[in-house]
Amino acid sequence: MKRHELLDHLRRHGCRLEREGSRHSMFVNPVTGAKAPIPRHSEIDSRLAVKICRQLDVPSIRP
User: Which CATH architecture has domain 3-55?
Assistant: First the structure.
């Protein structure tokens, strides 16, 4: 799955970028306060994408 597809999904469900690191972007769900790092790879494994969605308490993305 492409990184931008995952980021679009997270933003549609209310998550916001908290900060940019050198290897990861940190996203936060302002409703729950949950945080998750998103790696800066152009391709993200679908299992990792599902795990990130679970960490941020948003509906799972389907590849």
Answer: 2-Layer Sandwich (3.30)
The pair of three-digit structure tokens given for residue 48, joined into one six-digit string? 């990792």
Domain boundary assignment for the chain: 3-55
- For 18-45, the pLDDT digits (tens) are 999 999 999 999 999 999 999 999 999 9
DSSP string for residues in the chain: -BHHHHHHHHHHTT-EEEEE-SSEEEEE-TTT--EEEEE--SB--HHHHHHHHHHTT-PPPP-
Q: What radius of gyration do the chain's Cα atoms show?
A: 10
